[in-house]
Every structure is written in C-alpha cells, then in structure tokens.
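Reopening this ticket.

The earlier resolution said the output was attached, but the attachment link was broken on my side. Pasting everything inline this time so it's all in one place.
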Amino acid sequence: MGKRIKKLKNIRIHHEGTAELLLSAGFVVIVSAFLLRTLESSIPFWAFILLFGTAWLLMLNFYRCPIRYFDGETERLVVAPADGKIVVIEETEEHEYFHDKRLMISIFMSPLNVHANWFPVDGKVKFVHHQDGNYHKAWLPKASEENEHADIMITTPEGEDILVKQVAGAMARRIVTYAKENEECFIDEHLGFIKLGSRVDVYLPLGTEVCVRMGQPTTGDHTVIAKLK
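Inline output:
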C-alpha cells in the first residue's frame, strides 16, 4: 500500500492537458446541474454522468505525467523516449538526412499510454523540423514517412548524430516539441508531447547494440533500448 501511495505522488497532470481538463469538467458540471434541475426523471442525469464522467476520467488518464529519473550512468545509452510497445527493429535506408542505412527502433503509444516524450540520449539539439502529412495508423511502416511528424536531430557528446521522429497517428492531431535548436539536452528531460495514439522512431548508427525485442513494453526514460558502440 505504501509503495502505491508513493507511486501516485510521483504522478502529475501534464500542462498540455490543463485547459482541456478544466473546460471539460466545467461542461460536465454545468450540464449535470441543468439536467438535475429541469428534468423530472433522474435517468438522463445519471446517463450523462456515466457517459461524460467516464470520458473525462479517460482524458485524465491520458494526460498523466509521471515524474521519472534514470537511475545510473547515461554514457552511450539510448533510453526509451516514450511509454508503449516496440513495433519496429530494423535496418532501413534513411534518405532525408543521413542518406545511408540506419538502425530504426520504433515505439507505438496507444491512447492508454503516457504521451509525454523524453530525450533518449544526452547531447545537443542540432535541428528541429516539423512536417505536415497524413494520419495513417501509427503502427504502419508508411506512417514514418507519410504522416505528420517532427524530426529532432541530436548530436551526442561522442559526436554521433541520433534522429528522433515524433509521428502522428490516425487519431493524433497535435505534435508538441520542446526541443530547441542548439540547446543542450539530457535524458530525464521532456522532448515533447503527442496527443492521442502515435509513435516515436529513433534512428541509430549501424552496429548499435539493441537491448529490446519486438513487442516488448517500454517505460519512457527508464527502459534502455540500445547501447551505442
């Protein structure tokens, strides 16, 4: 019981959802009061509370933001930038920036996952590019190139360039990126936030040691997904 209380204390609501949660809560309260005062039957009132109350609790769950810190040395480690599930581990041609083969590891986030994103490596942000696009289902291979996405290139202290791609999914309609060009970044810091189902791709140099397997659940800022050679 004590561990659960401590865990709950380490969870807060992400600021990206504050306005939406307050406005929706106000809507539920106002409509509930109207139904209770104007209708003779209480059935519509309870039906509304059940429906919209459940939706509000799901929204609250979506915007939760755990306070996390990586335990240990971070040199040459690549940690998961998001909560979710590993859906891609493969060598792929990256034509836009590297123009050569890279190891791509992708994490799919369902609407029930935490949607805050963390920096996967320590380093310096080389650039941030945002590109509009489609909204295919996030786990499809073509989503990486065709969907709306934000590209963040990070140069590690050892001089390796690591590309992180925030990819919008079928339901996602807003990608928020906090990374700024030429600023230093560190594991434990938030890279951004994606609203609703989505994915995050990490492009690594060939020869990188993979530390996860297909279908494995990940915890953002905790799970080590790779080790740079």
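Reporter confirms the inline version is readable. Residues 14 and 65 are 5 Å apart (CA to CA). The chain has four helices and 16 strands.
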